[in-house]
Design goal:
127 residues; 47% strand; globular; Lipocalin; alpha+beta
């Protein structure tokens, strides 16, 4: 019985851990989404996962095809800057399928260019 409850809890955790994505922009190359619930929101900073679904797969330098990319993004609403700490690229849409590659970097916030996809996201989330 304990094994059944443990297995049920693991399945529930895996299912409930799947992100709910909200579309915020579509353009010629891709559709852009952000996670419905941020990882954190404190002192004017929002950290959340963003997702890019490419309309046509892109090819990495190693020759692998990438159909989607998930990025851990931080937005500083006051300074109107953004940056990312982690990028995970997937073979499938909606961050599904084989992980093609992943990388982590130190967070560096940069100014957001007017009219960019980042500007659309900043405007939407920093109201």
């Amino acid at each position: 019985m304990k094994i059944f409850l443990l297995a049920s809890a693991l399945v529930f955790t895996c299912v409930s851990a799947r992100a709910e994505w909200v579309a915020y922009q579509r353009h010629a190359e891709a559709e852009e989404f952000h996670e419905a619930t941020p990882v954190s929101r404190e002192q004017g900073r929002i950290t959340l996962w963003t997702l890019t679904d490419y309309l046509k797969p892109i090819t990495t330098l190693e020759g692998n095809e990438v159909s989607s990319e998930k990025v851990l993004t931080t937005i500083d609403c006051e300074s109107k800057k953004m940056g990312s700490e982690q990028v995970i690229r997937y073979a499938g849409k909606q961050a599904q399928g084989t992980v093609v590659n992943a990388m982590e970097t130190k967070l560096r916030l940069a100014s957001v260019r007017t009219g960019s996809t980042d500007a659309v996201l900043l405007e939407k989330l920093c109201r």
